[in-house]
Design brief:
The chain contains one helix and 16 strands. With 194 residues, the chain is mainly β. It starts with a helix and ends with a strand.
Length: 194
């Protein structure tokens, strides 16, 4: 119960910060400038990766940067063709997705920003695994595989905002296990050494 309350508190704090994160069109020295700017002022002080993908899911750009005391990070999109692009920020606890539409010299950051929280998984000393996820009502699929790739546990959940599970791993063979968690269209992997 205590870990669930900590998860709720932590997820609420993260969610407030996620709503403050902004990606906006740079309105600088030239009107033909095709740049977007990420406001770093509310980001946590850790590494964030950024990916830009086209509408076919092809990776166009990737970057990783340390978020410090704030400031801004500019992304030059002048060489991109007209179309729709996905701008993804990935940090320790979440993935934030923005859609960008480029048409001629015009860039629009669309209003459909999505935040997906990553699952937290702990292997306890008593060989139980605590799993927590703020799923926000998205479909969730949890799968656990042994080191031979065999599925040993699966749970599908719908319409739940918070998922908390405890798995008993006391009777499993020592080794490495992979937990695959799908939340909506995102998939995360966690590795356990039991």
């Amino acid at each position: 119960m205590q870990s669930l309350l900590m998860l709720l508190f932590f997820a609420t704090a993260i969610n407030v910060q996620a709503d403050e994160r902004s990606l906006f069109v740079f309105d600088g020295e030239t009107t033909n400038s095709k740049k977007v700017v990420l406001d770093l002022s509310t980001l946590d002080a850790h590494t964030v990766s950024c990916r830009i993908m086209n509408d076919q899911g092809r990776l166009i750009f990737t970057d990783e940067f340390l978020v410090g005391a704030g400031g801004y990070k500019k992304f030059n999109l002048e060489n991109l063709d007209d179309g729709r692009y996905s701008f993804r920020l990935n940090d320790l606890m979440q993935v934030i997705k923005y859609d960008i539409l480029i048409k001629g010299n015009e860039i629009n950051v669309l209003e459909n920003k999505e935040t997906i929280f990553k699952p937290t998984v702990w292997l306890n000393e008593d060989k139980t695994v605590d799993f927590h996820l703020l799923s926000q009502g998205k479909n969730v699929n949890i799968e656990l595989f042994n080191n031979r790739g065999e599925l040993i546990y699966q749970k599908r959940l719908k319409d739940q905002w918070i998922v908390s599970k405890r798995l008993n791993m006391k009777d499993v063979i020592k080794g490495e296990y992979t937990m695959k968690v799908s939340v909506g269209n995102e998939t995360f992997f966690k590795y356990l050494n039991v």
